[in-house]
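Late entry, evening session. Most of the bench is empty. Finally got around to the prediction I had been postponing all week. Sequence below, unchanged from the version circulated by S.P.
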Amino acid sequence: MKKIISVFFCIILLNGISKAYDDTFEAQKAGAYTIDGQGNEDFWASAVWYDIPYVWLPYGETVAPEDFTGRFKLAWTADVLLVLAEIEDDVFSDQHADPFDSYWEDDCFEVFLDEDHSGGWHESGAEAYNAFAYHISTLYDAVDIGTSGTVLLNDHVDVVITQNGATYTWETAIKIFDDTYDEGGSNNPVTLTGGKEMGLSVAYCDNDGTGVRENFIGAVNVSEEDQNAAWQDADVFGTLTLIDNGQTSFEDISGNENTFYIYPSPAQSNLYIDSKESFGDAIHIKVYSLDGRLMLSNKFDGENTGPYDLYVGMLEQGTYIIQLENDDLNYSQLFHKY
């Protein structure tokens, strides 16, 4: 019987490199964490910084760096999506203590989530929970528009903000709910797994103490037509992929366990593929671009249980499909090269 094995791994950026992506994001699987506004767990050190560079309102304008800059990282566990944001803001302002009063006019960090990446309207009414738009205030309230109007979803979001001069670190854990969410009923969060894709964007409302929002800045590059659409329409969200680097043991369809080890992580140019068991004939390795072009082809002895060294340093930055195959094995998975 042909063995089908799934494995998740990623070649990730080293700590400190920041990227402005139009619409694709990744979250690495996290270990134990504490929401304390510090972001000093080991898994954060290897996570990618994503910039928040696009001025949605007023569209096409620029924001001076001393007024605002923002970036964020992502991670996940089975229970929550973790978001670590670093915001430079010269005036940190919340003039509406009542979370139901003009909450969008104050400084707030926004996380837009679409659990099944289906897109579509989610502003209010029957479709309100097709996606979620968490407006997280400096007072730790998480506000959205639900089926009954403005609602507090504080039980979905755990957040702590710390300050160092004009730098504010927002550390957030968010439970993920699907579109069956019932505002007045009992709801269970979705269990997250590696390989899952969700719709995502983040944004920041910047108030400089005037009582109104001066700028609305987001992580996804939208058109002028969509400059104020993210809190209403999940079609403008980007794509978030959950990556599980730590998975090393896999069960095939016949119920027998076979083990691959892929390391190191992070890696810059070389991957090592190791196995405790023999897979018989030589294993063919092929790497394809997402448009189907063959980028790499090689093979290693399936009887050899020592590590196989696969050099990927010649590949350009991007996402690829790796395939391992022989008469008894068929394995393929996306991987990422930076």
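Two things to note before I forget:
The chain has a mean pLDDT of 82.
Helices lie at 42-45.
Will write this up properly tomorrow.
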